[in-house]
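Hello again,

I reread your note about wanting to compare the complex against the isolated chains. To keep things tidy I'm splitting this into two emails, and this first one only covers the full assembly. Below are the input lines as submitted, including protein chains and any nucleic acid or small-molecule components. They are followed by the predicted structure of everything together. The single-chain runs will come separately.
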Amino acid sequence: MDSIAELRSRLRAFAQERDWGRFHSPKNLAMALSGEAGELIAELQWLDDASVADGLEQGALKERLADEAADVLLYLVQFTEAAGIDLVDAAHAKIDRNESRYPVHLAHGTATKQTELHRPHQD
Amino acid sequence: MDSIAELRSRLRAFAQERDWGRFHSPKNLAMALSGEAGELIAELQWLDDASVADGLEQGALKERLADEAADVLLYLVQFTEAAGIDLVDAAHAKIDRNESRYPVHLAHGTATKQTELHRPHQD
Amino acid sequence: MDSIAELRSRLRAFAQERDWGRFHSPKNLAMALSGEAGELIAELQWLDDASVADGLEQGALKERLADEAADVLLYLVQFTEAAGIDLVDAAHAKIDRNESRYPVHLAHGTATKQTELHRPHQD
Amino acid sequence: MDSIAELRSRLRAFAQERDWGRFHSPKNLAMALSGEAGELIAELQWLDDASVADGLEQGALKERLADEAADVLLYLVQFTEAAGIDLVDAAHAKIDRNESRYPVHLAHGTATKQTELHRPHQD
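Full-complex prediction:
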């Protein structure tokens, strides 16, 4: 069974057994996902790249990050299910689109270019 | 091929072709993930549950949410790869842990209970 | 003394006494701010509006939200100081701009309009 | 007039004139705040500290960051007002608490210590 499909199936059973489905509106699940993303970056906020590398090698940081990453995925799977979105299809469609938006011959190169290409909208 | 493994493989090629790997530290990717989670909730912030349901039926909202959910997954896959974390293993480990933490006979029930169980730490 | 100026002054002393200034790059402080915003929404993710109102009246929720809101402000003040931004000026400039962008005669009205006006960019 | 009080007063008038008060539940405003925090970190996600410093000097990055920081403050002020929280009091109370939690003689020093002290909770 596909990994995402298997997680979806376990999560559906988990919520049903606890009667938690009624809390799982798209809006609430998006909030939960965002909260977990916040916990993920909170783990890294004071560390420079070298300290992150050290922490990952020693294992304790890796375990905490794995835990937070898992939380993000679990809420993402539940969010997309609640919204009737096929997560894996959407992800492939997005990579397809990015391949058109950032052609290799233009995107290859400098941080400036990368930044420019990825620059979020104003306002 | 498993869905997560396939996305990982496409994303790896995408970043390599553009020489973007050097921007993809765990810290930067966690920030990108968190930024995308922010865009996801921004889509829902002024809508009540009924408006979300309407919007999902009409399709335009669904497309925007699918796009943002895809972005979250793409950065999550890249983040966990950069950190040497097996995302699917971590997700199953987390569900296992949640099954112990929230036993069905205790967790079944009220919003209060759910809130209490899920209540984030103080400070 | 103005409230923001006073907080800035206390926070500067706090960080100096602990030699924490070197962790306080704009990037790190932005991450910290975002992490705290995540904790704030985590407090509300499973509650409907009526439960939020109840929780605020009983006081315990209010205290937790006050605590998280304070954290957001403290990091925001430190972030803008590290980036050389005048936070209060920026806030007034933004309200000025919003007054032009959302003229009263157009913005008054329906959720749809509000949503449309506030709709985040695509991608 | 105090800076926060003045912003609160302008924002109250702004929302009233547009009849937007009914969208401004604590939950919705917390989501909006979190979305803006996401936009803030999105501006910084691919930049190292030197590039941030360069960008701030050239002005364009500074303007974008000022804009996003302003958005965070505007929603924070509105959120705390909707929740009946005194934002400035809460901020001072939090600094007081942090002064007890991180005594100068213990907190002074290494990144490890800082990380340990600031380490977010597990789960």
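For quick reference: The first helix of chain D runs from residue 3 to 18.

B.
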